[in-house]
Here is the input.
Amino acid sequence: MAEIDYSVLLLALLAGAIRVGTPFLFVSLGECLTEKGGRINLGLEGILVVGAMSGYAVAYLTDSAWLGVLAAGCAGCALGAFHGVICSLPRVNDIAFGIALILLGTGLAFFFGKAFIQPQAPSLPSIELGAWSDDARVRSALSVNVLFFIGVALTLLMHWGLRATRWGLVLRLVGDHAQSARALGYRPALVRTLATASGGFLAGVGGAYLSLYYPGSWNEGLSSGQGLMAVALVIFARWQPLNCLWAALLFGASGAVGPALQAVGISSGYYLFAAMPYALTLLVMYLSCRPNQTLSGAPGELSLNR
Amino acid sequence: MPILNRRSFIKAAGVLGASTALPVNLARAADKPVTVGFIYVGAKDDFGYNQAHAEAAAIIKGLPNVTVIEEENVPETVAVQRSMEAMIRQDGAQLIFPTSFGYFDPHVIKVARKYPEVRFAHCGGLWQKGVHPDNAGSFFGYIDEGQYLNGVVAGHMSKSKKLGFVAAKPIPQVLRNLNAFTLGARSVDPEITTTVIFTGDWSLPVKEAEAANSLIDQGCDVLTCHVDGPKVLVETAEKRGVMTCGYHASQAALAPKGYLTGAEWNWETPYRAHVMALQSGAPMNNFMRGGLKEGFVKTSPYGSAVSDAAKAAADAVKASMLKSELSIFTGPIRNNTGEVMVAEGTVLTQTDVVLERMDYLVEGVRGQI
Here is the structure.
């Protein structure tokens, strides 16, 4: 076998972490926001697919990728609000409704997305951080999409907003102890619905990243469970936006490691590498959800805690 | 009833021969009206496997006295049995083409036993006489011939002498394509290597894009694939200024600069044969196989980037394939660890079942099963 080029491998992992990780980042930030308010929205997988479809469709029809992103966010926001409102009704289980929303979202997206499989929509611009290099590989690896930077900025904003603003405090209070929030005059159902809707917006944008940038086209097999994995990722990140960023990058890199290793000639056991993101999810769930261990940082009102 | 069976076999073979040999307009239009159903596993406009079937179904739709009904996104579960029954009972379908590999066993077999008057022509399965019902059958094409030609063109066009192949799973059909592609390229220049990346499933867009990027980073300058929808690979390669060879259907529209040629299915041939047999009342031909010569596969027109030398070389190879002078798997063939897999002097023709059990990577492929 030929000698192994480790610099290429590292570069591929770094580039992959960013390219594959960005949708994880958006969906997990959305889920983080939702769960901080005390609800779990498993339907983000469905919202992601709707976002990917509507983003691609609008980008194609208006010839503007950014309008597509906005449309994806709005579609996600609408579905998120739907989840929020329905789950505010008495005796509605948010997890069960989330699963229903996955089915609804993918069904809607497949139905309306039929016409948009063939046409090519404009794609999102990226920033060429590698312009200094002569190496095409470095240039390609460092060509980073604008949405990634927006995601990082949002992470910092959420990190600061949740701990230092009144809105953040209200959201955390509602998520930790709804009765106290009610006693203080806040309306938990409204706060949660808003949080779920904003979470939906972010998941929709994550979907638009898939269809408008990487891999960059709409088809029915586009999502491979990113939305569901993001839920596990939020637990892994202990409900901290900053950790969501690292976790998203880690999951992104684990998705990229299989192809990258095979490309440099390490090809034994590629099924193991292909299963890595899922194995990582399982490991995270095992480590964080053992019965004798309370989840540090988990919002108290989450239905998996009550 | 051995005599009857032999007779029906001879008749069916005759129908196939006639249908492939005769030009289209000689086929009689005054046949009885029939309803034909097509079932696809994915979207019929996926720039890939399903599109290849749907394009041929569109041609069948244009035949006189033929009504075509289609259903897409039917999973390889009992769902396909329900689809088939619905086509038979509601639409009165007399011939059904379940086009995905996983439909055959047990779904097609089960429904075929239940409706003996309906014909089921499955794509890709291995129909066996006596084991499977007589109103079912299978057809498939030797698309490795197209991949060999892809390899010849890629071998001429590559500057880095490194090619890339994104494969879904290491099953014989995929390995046969990968090996044919590599043998084609190495017939041009034995220095050429093909790096293979297995993604693990038929449709994983993010992983396919990642695989394409990794291959390009490694210096591969012509890519091809065997996944359900080559759209992602072709688009990713085009964005990065790398050449591609297509698969399943033509992806030329997606890569005006870098698309060289492609191995495409031409399902019109078996479809037409089955429909004509049904219309004329001839018995069903249960087992059909064919390659370039028989018109089961075809190649995409050459892209603008292809040099004249490459075109001439590929055309010459194609001509000798059409005359059955060239067999892709002609010994000596070694695997990529140096063992002889096909001995010197051995020529494996396309119909050889050994080829349907392929489990090795030929010399020049970088990768492992």
In short: DSSP finds 13 helices and two strands in chain A. Residues 6-36 of chain A form the longest helix (31 residues).
